[in-house]
Amino acid sequence: MTKINKTITANISALGMYVPDKILSNFDLEKMVDTKDEWIQERTGIKERRITTDGQATVDMASRAAERLLQTRNISAEEIDIIILATVTPDMMFPCSASQVQDKIGATNAWGFDLSAGCSGFLFALQTGAQFIESGTHKKVMVIGADTMSSIVDYTDRNTCILFGDGAGAVLLEPSTNGFGLIDSKMKLDGSGGKFLKMPAGGSLNPPSHETIDKKMHYIYQDGKTVFKFAVKGMADISYEIAQRNNLQGDDIKLFIPHQANKRIIDAAARRLKLKEEQVLSNIDRYANTTAATIPIGMVEATKNGRLKKGDNLIISAFGTGFTWGATYIKWGLTFDE
Ligand code: UT7
């Protein structure tokens, strides 16, 4: 991907997030598998995560995040042109969950679709949504990252069950002629990494059967060590490249919002960019890895608590199943109380 000069940029003009009320702490997990709060905190930075209850799933969380976004922007759902929902845990294989969000929020003039890129899903969806704004064909694109990871986590597997949580975050993209929004991005895909992080069954290759259930093939499988190694290098290198080619060094970067998979991966990427602690957003202690939702949730929190203001330089970056990874440089164009 090459950097181009844009006359219209896709600005993030509104935000919304939703996480379920129920907290699953490390101490709760100690009662479920052979693990310890100290181990989880030391190896991942996670203290607790949010988990859906009572049949709540991805569409519901995504719709709540979308509704909060509409309230803060003070617009009706009918004004939305497109809904792009990044998720690996749609409510069903089909129809796409974006269609159910469209119906739930009443976005009667929108079209849309789901996008599957794992933990890079929001980044890829944001990049996709920006194309519709930059080309001038659409004015209001809603990009949502939402995942109900608890629906595919095996709570008897200590290697994976400690890592994930549920949540949703939504952003609105609108045109800017003042240079706010997405300035530059680089995205990567390497399918040779697919075997290291996957949910093997439920698709057309291994449709559901007694055998797939007995073999626990409807849960997340991860070779954590290998993914960790690729994630550290992938996220650090691509974030560094985006910073370099936009002449951003040290204090030029107001905030770095990396995907929240492991605090040690976040720290490694931050070290490569030579960032201080206050320049890096980390909320993995409270939400764990919510897959496509980590970055938009981070954006909401950073804007609410004043860590991101209009004109600030933001870099977002992610690494996930596929392998997929990427980084985007955003000139932030929103202040919370606007
Ligand atoms: O967002 C998508 C991308 N995903 C990621 O980026 C995740 C990447 N991977 C990771 O974050 C880390 O690899 C993990 C957190 C999953 C694991 O950390 P690690 O430092 O790589 O630990 P390990 O897999 O090397 O395991 C070390 C030991 C093992 O015991 P033995 O074999 O040395 O006796 C594990 O069985 O820790 C054991 N272990 C645990 N112990 C207590 C694994 N899980 C746990 C646990 N509690 N929950």
Features:
338 residues, globular, 4-stranded mixed beta sheet, 5-stranded mixed beta sheet, alpha/beta, binds oxa(dethia)-CoA
Your description of this structure?
The chain is of the alpha/beta class. Helices cover 32% and strands 23% of the residues. The chain contains eleven helices and 13 strands. A five-stranded mixed β-sheet has the order 1-7-6-4-5, sandwiched between helices. Strands 8-13-12-11 form a four-stranded mixed β-sheet, with helices on both faces. Helix 4 (97-105) links the parallel strand 4 and strand 5. Helix 3 crosses helix 4 and helix 8 (224-245) packs parallel to helix 9. The radius of gyration is 19 Å and the shape is globular. It binds oxa(dethia)-CoA. The site of oxa(dethia)-CoA (UT7) has 19 residues, from helix 2, helix 6 and helix 8.
Overall structural class, as computed from helix and strand content, comes to: alpha/beta
Count of distinct strands:
13
Helix proportion of residues, in percent? 25-40%
Q: How do the strands of the widest beta sheet line up side by side?
A: 1-7-6-4-5
- Report the sheet with the most strands, covering strand number, pairing sense and barrel closure: 5 strands, mixed
> Could you give the order of the helices and strands?
EEHHEHEHEHEHEEEHEHEHHHEE
Bound molecules: oxa(dethia)-CoA
Radius of gyration: 19 Å
Silhouette: globular
Termini gap: 33 Å
Quaternary:
single chain
Strand content: 15-25%
Number of helices: 11
Mean pLDDT: 96
Q: Which segments are poorly predicted (pLDDT under 50) over 5 or more consecutive residues?
A: none
